[in-house]
Amino acid sequence: MRRSTSSGFVVLAGIAVAVSLTACQDFSSAVSEDSAEAAAEMAEYPTAVPSEIAPGAPDADAQSERSLPADDSAPTASLPQLAYSYDYLVALPTRSVRRLAASHEQACVQAGPQRCQLIGSSNEQAGEDSQTVRLELRATPEWLTAFRNGLAAEAEAADGEVVRSSTQSEDLTRALIDTEAHLRAKTALRDRLQTMLATRDGNLQTVLEVERELARVQGEIDSATSTLQAMRARVAMSHLTITYQSRSVLAPDSATAPLESALTGALGLFMMGLAAIVSVLAFSLPFLLVIGPIVWLIMRTLRRRKARRSAAQAVRQAPVDVGE
At what angle do helices 141-157 and 94-111 cross, to 10 degrees? Predict the structure, then answer.
C-alpha cells in the first residue's frame, strides 16, 4: 500500500514537470515570435538616426568644431576707433617761413575738403628776424601719411629742419559703442511714443504729457546723433598742427652759439631798459610841460619876496647919520 502511494506521487510529479516544460516552451516561442514581429516592424519602419550621430558622421565635439569658421574666413574683430593728432615744429630761416607755410596751405586746399580741411592759421611777427606761422589741418589718413612722409624733405629744401614731432591718439571705441546703443534705445522709445500718440484715445492732459516726453526724447536723439557724427569725423580724419618758426642763420650747434646767445641776451636787456626809460619819459613829459612853468613862477615869486625882505631888513639895521 505504501509502495503504490509512492509510485502515484512520482507519476503526479512527472506530469507537473512535463506541464512546466511545455509552458516554458510555449512562452519562449511566444517571446521569439514577438521578437521576430518587432524585428520585422523595425525592418519595415527603420528608426531615423540623426545625421550628427549617423554612422560615419563625426561626433558632437567634432561637429561643433567643424561648424566654426576657419581662421581665414572668421569675421574680423572690431578694430579700435582711434582719433589721431600730430604736432610738428619746423625751424626755418625767416625768409622761408611764410613761403613754406603758404605752400602747405595751398596743398591742402587743392586736395579738396573731402581729403583735407584747413581749420585755422595764425601769423606772429616780432621784428624782421622773428616770425611764427601756425597751421591747423584735418585730413584723411592716406593724404596725411603722404604729407608727413615728405615734410622733412620739404623743410630741408627750404634750409630748415623738423625739430619736434609728436603723435597722440584717443580711443573712442567705447564712446562710439555707448552712443550707438543709447541712440538705438532712444529711437525705439520714440517709435513707441509715436505709436501711443497715434493710436491711444485719452484726455488732453495725457496727450500733452506724451507729446512733451516725445519732444524730450527727440532732443536726446538729435544730441546723440550729432555727438556720434563728431566722433566718427574725428576717427575718419586726423588732426595736424604745424608750427613754422624762424631761427638764426647761424647753426645752433656751432662753436659760437653760446657767445651769440649771451650777446643776444645782453642786447635784449639793454633794449628793455632803454624802452623803460623812454616809457617813463613819455608818461611824465605832459605833466612836466604843464606843472614846470607853474613851479618856476612860484619859485621866482618866492625869491623876489625873499630879496625884498632882505633889503628892508638891511635898511632898518643901517646906522643913522650923526650930522642929521
Answer: 160
Condensed to tens digits (0 to 9), the pLDDT of residues 199-210 reads: 876 688 888 888
Pairing of strands 131-139, 116-125: antiparallel
- Residue-wise burial string across 68-85, b where 16 or more C-beta atoms lie within 10 A, e elsewhere: eeeeeeeeeeeeebebbe
DSSP per-residue codes, 130-166: -EEEEEEEEE-HHHHHHHHHHHHHHHHHTT-EEEEEE
Q: Residue 78's pLDDT is what?
A: 67
For 21-38, what is each residue's pLDDT tens digit? Answer: 444 444 344 434 443 443
Cell of 67: 561648424
Q: Which residue has the higher pLDDT, 50 or 236?
A: 236
Which position has the grid cell 505504501?
2
What sign results for the dihedral spanned by CA atoms 71, 72, 73, 74?
positive
Q: Are 122 and 245 in contact (CB under 8 A)?
A: no
| pLDDT value, residue 11 | 40
CA angle 210/215/216 to nearest 5° reads 100
Q: How far is Cα 248 from Cα 91, in angstroms, rounded to an integer?
A: 9
CA–CA distance, 144 with 150 (Å, rounded to integer): 10
Q: What is the pTM of this model?
A: 0.49
Q: What is the dihedral of CA 98, 103, 107, 108, to 10 degrees?
A: 0
SS3 state of residue 124: strand
User: 252-276: string of b/e by CB count within 10 Å (b at 16+)?
Assistant: eeeeeeeeeeeeeeeeeeeeeeeee
- Residue 244, beta-bridge partner list: 90, 133
46 or 223, which is more confident: 223
Identify the helix (H) or strand (E) that includes residue 127.
Answer: none
- CA dihedral (65, 71, 74, 76) positive or negative: positive
